């Protein structure tokens, strides 16, 4: 039977590209284009800068990089068929633009340049791109649609409003590369709900999935109706795709009944605000199965060659899959950590990692993340006991490794430590175990881990959390050594929360004694973290106020926290910027991570207390 009038079969390709891997990215793109053609879709959409990967950063300053991106856009054009391909790439005229190409039947029909360039938080797009201008809509089989890119949709009076109300578009396709942090997914959904309902328009939001250095892209691509209903969602934190047959007639019916929409449209007409229409001609419609409200979803991670699905799955009602797949904030964070760690390791061509196991909760969580990310067979845990290490910590480390199925090495540091003490004796002021001697133990352990890294090509994973790194409760060239630091943006209280979730879901793989014991570096007899730090629930409150909320000293004290404690913590944060600058990069989880997100000068005499 002929295709239903007013029905658009959409294909959302939520891919995980690698920056600069043009060949690998093209293969992913080609897979989906082939699959779209087999399933007679009308439109397939890919994320922002899908050709290059995101963010390319200063690679954009290299002409050869931009030219290679254009060569692969040509390859994509040459494999396009009798449907529309919307894909992100770097456009070049006299300047360069963050752009979307609209391709059909081996022709580039149009190019849409991003208009709003984010230049805050982790974004530096104004450093590289020119702002686009001009807004168009496209007519496809009598249906009007608009295309915009990521930040463009965040502005209520931006391109989407012009495309929907002045241009009459009933579908907006937004190509995005929106990185994850806690609460970002919910905030993004609220924004999409507002844009869809305010403009009575369907929105196909296509986001990246995957890790790129510090950033994790959570996917969560979705189709939102003009009534704000999530019609379908791609799986979070993994590569995925879905197809959906969208009834375009429902938008017109909703708009007829919406006084606000009609008033806005009439106002724009009276002000002679119009949007050009670009017509896209498809060849004669082909026969497709008779379906209604149909969606297809599959896992792309294991796919190696294009394979046509046996059939489309039918649903009588729409369904929001997010809460079925992500049960709580801690699971969301855990999935982000696993994805970001795995992609950093794999995309940088490491095969195996090594972790120092202390018997504490931080190294335990890091080991779990690594084993989930790249497989237990690729993770080695190293026990490096000293004369101050408790039997409980050693036993806990071995039990954790047994539960996870990790290989372990045990390399005691007592003899090495004694040798240092002997050779440095004349340079020490006292025979007591001072901070110098505590740090010496940490640096011996760091040397051992880096030696194993050099010998076997293993990547060292650092195990420090955000609470410790914030206040400098870590040893430079000691426990801070490593090529990647998975939990560096996780406060200690959240470390406990994530570990509790892991044990609930995965049968207590982290020994309960690790979670319950008082945190300690075990660098001298009877030591605990609270000897030098406030309780972690108080410390983390102060840190969130100061780092993420940018609250000043008086405002934090007004929250009910002791002023002397606040002053001490803030001074530790400010003083230890030099340490953080020398630490390994790690995954952004909070709204304001150290590094590319929060940038403070090391040489700085300004104090808020």
Write structural notes for this entry.
The chain has 609 residues and is of the alpha/beta class. It has two domains: 7-325, Carbon-nitrogen hydrolase (Nitrilase/N-carbamoyl-D-aminoacid amidohydrolase); 329-525 and 576-581, 3-Layer(aba) Sandwich (Rossmann fold). The protein contains 19 helices and 20 strands. The chain has helices spanning 22-38, 63-79, 159-166, 184-199, 249-256, 259-270, 322-325, 329-347, 361-374, 391-404, 414-424, 435-456, 466-471, 492-505, 512-516, 536-548, 553-558, 563-575, 577-581, and strands at 7-14, 43-45, 84-92, 96-104, 107-113, 137-140, 143-149, 171-176, 202-207, 209-212, 215-218, 222-224, 230-233, 240-247, 277-280, 295-299, 353-356, 379-383, 407-410, 459-460. The strands form four sheets. Strands 5-4-3-2-1-14-16 form a seven-stranded mixed β-sheet. Strand 7, helix 3 (159-166) and strand 8 form a beta-alpha-beta unit. It is elongated and about 85 Å long. Residues 285-321 have low confidence and may be disordered.
Short description:
This protein is α/β, with parallel strands linked by helices and 609 residues long.
CATH topology of the largest domain: Nitrilase/N-carbamoyl-D-aminoacid amidohydrolase
Let me know the largest β-sheet.
7 strands, mixed
Q: Averaging pLDDT over every residue, what do you get?
A: 88
Level of helix content? 25-40%
Structure class: alpha/beta
CATH class of the largest domain: Alpha Beta
Shape: elongated
The helix tally amounts to 19
Detail the poorly predicted runs: 285-321
| Radius of gyration from the alpha-carbon trace, in angstroms | 27 Å
The strand count comes to 20
**Spatial order of the strands in the main sheet?**
5-4-3-2-1-14-16
Structural domain count: 2
Work out the strand percent: 15-25%
- Report the end-to-end length measured between terminal Cα atoms: 75 Å
Q: By CATH's scheme, which homologous superfamily of the largest domain applies?
A: Carbon-nitrogen hydrolase
């Amino acid at each position: 039977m002929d295709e239903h009038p007013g029905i658009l079969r959409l294909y959302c390709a939520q891919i995980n590209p690698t920056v600069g891997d043009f060949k690998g990215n093209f293969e992913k793109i080609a897979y989906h284009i082939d699959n779209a053609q087999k399933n007679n879709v009308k439109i397939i959409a890919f994320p922002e800068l899908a050709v290059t990967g995101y963010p390319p950063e200063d690679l954009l300053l290299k002409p050869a990089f931009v030219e290679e991106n254009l060569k692969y856009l040509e390859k994509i054009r040459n494999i396009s068929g009798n449907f529309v391909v919307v894909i992100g790439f770097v456009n070049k005229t006299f300047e360069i633009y963050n752009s979307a190409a609209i391709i059909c039947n081996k022709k580039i029909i149009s190019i849409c340049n991003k208009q709003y360039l984010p230049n805050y938080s982790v974004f530096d797009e104004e450093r590289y791109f020119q702002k686009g201008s001009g807004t168009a809509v496209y007519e496809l089989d009598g249906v009007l649609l608009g295309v915009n890119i990521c930040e463009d949709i965040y502005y209520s009076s931006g391109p989407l409003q012009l495309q929907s109300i002045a241009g009459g578009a009933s579908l907006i396709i937004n190509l995005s590369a929106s990185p994850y942090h806690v609460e970002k997914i919910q905030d993004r959904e609220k924004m999409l709900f507002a844009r869809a309902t305010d403009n009575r328009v369907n929105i196909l939001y296509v986001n990246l999935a995957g890790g790129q250095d510090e950033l994790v892209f959570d996917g969560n691509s979705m189709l939102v109706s003009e009534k704000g209903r999530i019609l379908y969602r791609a799986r979070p934190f993994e590569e995925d795709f879905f197809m959906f047959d969208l009834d375009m007639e429902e938008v017109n019916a909703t708009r007829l009944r919406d006084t606000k929409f009609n008033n806005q449209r009439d106002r724009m007409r009276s002000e002679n605000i119009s949007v050009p229409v670009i017509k896209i001609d498809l060849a004669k419609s082909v026969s497709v199965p008779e379906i209604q409200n149909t969606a297809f979803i599959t896992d792309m991670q294991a796919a190696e060659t294009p394979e046509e699905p046996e059939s489309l799955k039918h649903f009588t009602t729409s369904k929001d899959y997010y809460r079925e797949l992500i049960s709580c904030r801690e699971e969301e964070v855990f999935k982000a950590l696993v994805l970001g760690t795995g992609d950093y390791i794999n995309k940088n061509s490491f095969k195996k990692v090594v972790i120092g196991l202390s018997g504490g909760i931080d190294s335990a969580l890091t080991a779990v993340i690594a084993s989930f990310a790249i497989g237990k067979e690729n993770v080695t845990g190293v026990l490096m006991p000293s004369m101050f290490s408790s039997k409980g910590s050693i036993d806990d480390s071995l039990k954790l490794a047994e539960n996870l199925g990790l290989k372990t090495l045990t390399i005691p540091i007592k003899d090495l430590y004694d040798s240092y003490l002997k050779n440095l004796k004349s340079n020490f002021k006292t025979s007591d175990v001072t901070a110098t001697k505590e740090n010496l133990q940490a640096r011996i352990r760091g040397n051992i881990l880096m030696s194993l890294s050099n010998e076997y090509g293993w990547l060292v994973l650092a195990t420090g959390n955000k609470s410790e790194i914030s206040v400098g409760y870590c040893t430079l060239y000691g426990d801070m050594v490593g090529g990647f630091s998975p939990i560096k943006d996780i406060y200690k209280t959240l470390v406990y929360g994530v570990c509790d979730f892991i044990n609930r879901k995965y049968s207590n793989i982290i020994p309960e004694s690790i979670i319950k014991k008082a945190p300690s570096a075990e660098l001298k007899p009877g030591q605990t973290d609270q000897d030098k730090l406030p309780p972690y629930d108080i410390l983390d409150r102060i840190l969130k106020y100061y780092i993420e909320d940018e609250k000043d000293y008086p405002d934090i004290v007004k929250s009910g926290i002791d002023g002397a404690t606040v002053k001490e913590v803030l001074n530790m944060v400010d003083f230890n910027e030099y340490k953080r600058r020398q630490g390994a990069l790690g995954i952004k989880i909070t709204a304001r991570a150290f590094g590319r997100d929060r940038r403070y000068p090391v040489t700085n005499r300004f104090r808020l207390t």
